[in-house]
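Quick illustration, no need to memorize.
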Amino acid sequence: MKMQIKEFAELTGVSVRTLHYYDEIGLLKPSEVDAQNGYRFYDEKSLERMQEIIFYRELDFSLKTIAQILSLPDYDKQQALSRQRKLLLSKKERLEQLIAAIDSAEKGEGFMKTNNDYEALKNQYAQEVKQRWGNTDAYKESQQRNTDLSKSAALLDEVFEIFAELNRSGISPNDEPAKVQVEKLQQCITDNFYTCTNEILAGLGKMYIADERFKTNIDKHGEGTAEYISACIKSYFKK
């Protein structure tokens, strides 16, 4: 099996921009890159690794932690895939129960209670990962930089809020205040999450509008904030 990046994105349910970003940070490299045109291709091994990434993302681990776990010599790929299947089946059951409950409520039959172990299973797997690899240097280093994710997220939100204020004030992405704020964004990510190189920053600028999850989260600061930040980052690299 050999797939171009668009096919692989559709199959796995992630955006092409996300795959570009995963390639940039070394989390998921294409199986092959055409030297003539730069086209990326993915194969069965790529699909397996993506399934593993999705599993650990479902457990709320950072991309950096996931990369380190997958690189450990005693990592059990088959166990991870088996657990992912069980977790996804539990999630599917929960969603089906929620849909049935909503259907019941719409018919005036009252809101049905749901009973599902998805969250308990998710927490169980997350704890098992921490217990198994929590003493490795790689895991400790990753956890040290993420000991207070809520604080880091709050700091990033403050940066996004200033972008929103600049946008509401009519500051052009080409103006100096916008460029200064892009530098603050890059520094905030580096200080609190991972080293944000210029290449990664440029990729994030694209992901903020291409990935609906990013866009929705950023636009809570004001409609159009994600588009504005993306434009600011694009303008920043034209300086």
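The longest helix spans residues 77-106.
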